[in-house]
Design brief:
The complex is a heterodimer of chains A (about 300) and B (about 425). Chain A is an alpha/beta fold. Chain A contains 12 helices and 9 strands. Classes of the chains: A alpha/beta (about 300), B alpha/beta (about 425).
Chain lengths: ~300, ~425
């Protein structure tokens, strides 16, 4: 199969076939990562730049490790948002880097559409590592891989995405991907944390955790930003945890073998109780492992399609 | 004395309810005869306009200019070139400059620069409040005497209702129209486009219709209370028309305008974060756009403006949420409006009325008509000529047009201001 994309800017635009292809490839990368010799040379000689306008230790580390395992030369650029706002624009920064002939640019930015904007201006492949509240495609892929490996399939699984959907790129990418693979997607949140038109986004909407979690196969918790906890979107942490935080009592409504996921970093005691995060149903650490594998699969695929078949 | 006769043109002049083939005689600066067959004495210059349409030059009541303060985006001279190319012969310049036009000296500066450097009529408007801050009134009487045509708080909505009441009351005594855009800063918050499913998928913060309607309803009540001449400068949704209709029914003296962008485009045009489509108010749904066209056709919406707002790459070549609002529009105003005519949505004479005659009436300008005795400000238009809007042809200093590479039917071939051609080959 030829992967018909030069960039990975979002789940939007990927076919079911594209997604399955990436997940199959990621399965192989998991195997590789569990060996003693973890390194291949499929991206040898290629340069990967991680351009993070928003700091993120884990995602950046995951991309860095993925690139290194594939044999690429990896450079990390942490660009504080403040220094960019002082003059040099996103495009200027990107053009400067572009002149250094990278092969892959991994971009995280606080503004929706930033990765797509860069992709128009640079000559290399762009991987979106999160753009504002828009998309975070590798996170959705790693979540899908985690579910598939644990449940055997994604179709017809009931997945409850809980919490701050409004500001979450993880939620948008997951809603799209899970729908593409035939899962039943629910969102559970107070209405102040749901985007307008959510009921037309291919999900069932719940405002009560017990109802929303009933018979769920997967419970996916979202992070609630600290500045949104105290009066602007929800009144207080204790009220939020009481009604929307995942604890044993609420989780009991899901299927007994339901898996608990979180994209991290977690706010323990806000959206998730520690006993659940560290409990037997939690697959949060497995998600981290799948993250490296998925990113390896994505970058290797993009490099093969960029250097092989003409761009479609 | 130079006399020119335009022969065999289709003359469309809503001010005289003319839509017929005929001749127009211009003597020096003014029109001296309009319509019918005019026999030219020997030696008089004649221009054959067969197949062409002559309309009163457009009057654009909402134009942002960079001068003073941001001359790299647009100067008074460059904006007049852009206007001339679009058949716009008079424009009202917004006070949103740096410094803000809130003082007699600045009004005089604009008038002097316009007189010396501009090839079309440029009329300054004055800020309703000092520095557009929404707190202290400016000197309405002195500003009017200096030549300010109307009052506006520009892009900003006055939040304080007491200030607004006093401003409208005081403006009424001086017979000045107050033109306001209405956005509720709290509801709008960090919003950058129309609220709805499309914004939600893009991960962009939405602006609900109510952010426009709530302050508009408030303004209309104050207009009713004070008896001021209130002009809702840029409405974007059908619900705003409902509000205006009911205010009129209660007796308020209210007019309203819409930008050509909101008649031509909708939120889906934003596509993949195209910042040239980031506007204020934001582009709304297709249903809203259709409703606005109907309201323009039946006269509920009085006028069309370009809302010409030059922005440079430093404010537009950014991620959507970080970019500035605004689009240029003088050069495409008529061509985009003619789409409505070619689609059969609206008659040509109503279109010209809304883009020329009516704005001149509302703001008291000696323009918008081809009546004998009025200034010879007119445009000669080929209604059928197909053309492609190319970035390279833009005369404005800024290139932020939402119509880049758009196909149009109908183009201005010549523009005349006070009897002199300012645009077109002869």
């Amino acid at each position: 199969m030829v992967f018909p994309h030069r960039h990975l800017l979002g789940i939007n635009g990927l076919s079911e076939l594209d997604i399955s292809f990436l997940l199959d490839k990621a399965d192989l990368a998991v195997k590789l990562s569990r060996q003693r010799e973890k390194k291949t040379n499929s991206l040898r000689g290629l340069t990967q730049i991680n351009l993070f306008f928003e700091s993120s230790t884990r995602t950046q580390a995951s991309f860095e490790l993925a690139g290194k395992r594939l044999g690429a030369d990896v450079m990390n650029m942490a660009v504080g948002n403040s220094s960019v706002k002082k003059g040099e624009t996103l495009i200027d920064t990107a053009m400067t880097l572009n002149a250094m002939h990278p092969d892959i640019l991994v971009v995280r930015h606080s503004s929706a559409g930033a990765a797509a904007l860069l992709a128009q201006k640079v000559g290399c492949s762009v991987v979106n590592a999160g753009d504002g509240a828009h998309e975070h495609p590798t996170q959705a892929l790693l979540d899908a891989l985690t579910i598939r490996r644990s449940k055997g399939k994604i179709a017809r699984q009931i997945v409850a995405i809980c919490g701050d959907v409004l500001h979450s790129r993880v939620a948008r990418s997951n809603i799209m991907l899970l729908n593409a693979l035939g899962a039943r997607v629910r969102v559970v949140a107070p209405s102040t944390l749901l985007p307008t038109g959510i009921e037309q986004m291919g999900v069932e909407v719940f405002h009560d955790m017990k109802e929303g979690l009933r018979d769920a196969d997967v419970v996916m918790m979202l992070r609630l930003q600290r500045e949104r906890m105290t009066g602007s979107f929800v009144p207080s942490i204790r009220e939020y945890f009481r009604y929307f935080g995942l604890d044993a009592e609420k989780l009991a409504y899901a299927k007994p073998d339901a898996m608990v996921m979180h994209p991290g970093p977690m706010n323990r005691g806000v959206e998730i109780a520690s006993e659940i995060a560290d409990g037997p149903q939690s697959v949060i650490e497995s998600q981290v492992e799948m993250g490296v594998a998925v990113r390896m699969a994505v970058m290797e695929t993009l490099m093969l399609s960029a250097n092989g078949e003409p761009e479609l | 004395m130079s006399t020119i006769i335009l022969k065999n043109a289709r003359i469309v002049d809503p001010s005289q309810k003319i839509d017929a083939v005929g001749d127009i005689c211009i003597d020096d600066k003014n029109i001296i005869e309009c319509g019918g067959k005019i026999d030219a004495p020997q030696g008089v210059r004649q221009i054959d306009c067969s197949g062409k349409t002559v309309i009163p030059g457009l009057v654009d009541a909402r134009v942002f200019v960079g001068e003073p303060g941001a001359e790299h985006r647009e100067t008074i001279a460059s904006v007049s070139q852009a206007a001339a190319a679009g058949g716009v012969t008079s424009l009202i310049m917004m006070p949103d400059t740096s410094p803000v036009i809130d003082d007699v000296a600045l009004v005089e500066f604009v008038r002097r620069a316009a007189r010396e450097q501009a090839c079309v009529n440029i009329y300054p408007s004055a800020a309703m409040t000092k520095g557009l801050q929404g707190a202290e009134l400016t000197e309405y009487g002195l500003l009017r005497e200096a030549g300010a045509i109307m009052l506006t708080n520009g892009r900003k909505t006055i939040a304080n209702t007491l200030v607004l009441r006093r401003a409208m009351t005081y403006a009424r005594d001086f017979g000045l129209v107050v033109a306001c855009e209405t956005q509720d800063a709290y509801l709008e918050a960090q919003g950058v486009m129309n609220e709805g499913l499309f914004a939600s998928w893009l991960g962009l913060e939405g602006i609900p219709l109510e952010a426009e309607i709530i302050p508009l309803e408030r303004d209309l009540r104050i207009a009713e209370l004070t008896g001021a001449n209130y002009h809702a400068a840029k409405i974007s949704t059908a619900k705003s028309i409902d509000a205006i209709r009911s205010a009129r029914a209660r007796g308020a003296k209210v007019t309203c305008g819409i930008s050509i962008n909101h008649l031509s485009l909708n939120e889906n045009d934003i596509g993949e974060y195209r910042t040239f489509f980031r506007l204020s108010p934001p582009l709304r749904s297709e249903d809203d756009r259709r409703a606005m066209i109907a309201a323009l056709e039946n006269g509920d919406i009085d006028i069309i403006v370009s809302s010409h707002d030059p922005q440079d790459v430093d404010t537009k070549r950014l991620p959507f949420a970080d970019a500035a609002d605004g689009a240029i529009g003088l050069e495409t105003l008529l061509a985009a409006a003619l789409r409505l005519y070619h689609n059969g949505d609206i008659s040509l004479s109503r279109l010209i009325e809304a883009a020329s005659t009516r704005p001149a009436q509302i703001f008291g300008l000696d323009a918008g008509t081809l009546k004998p005795g009025s200034p010879a400000d007119l445009a000669i238009v080929d209604l059928e000529e197909p053309w492609l809007m190319s970035k390279d042809d833009i005369r404005s200093r800024s290139k932020n047009t939402p119509f880049e590479d758009a196909r149009f039917q109908g183009r201005v071939t010549h523009t005349m201001v006070a009897g002199k051609f300012v645009y077109g080959d002869l």
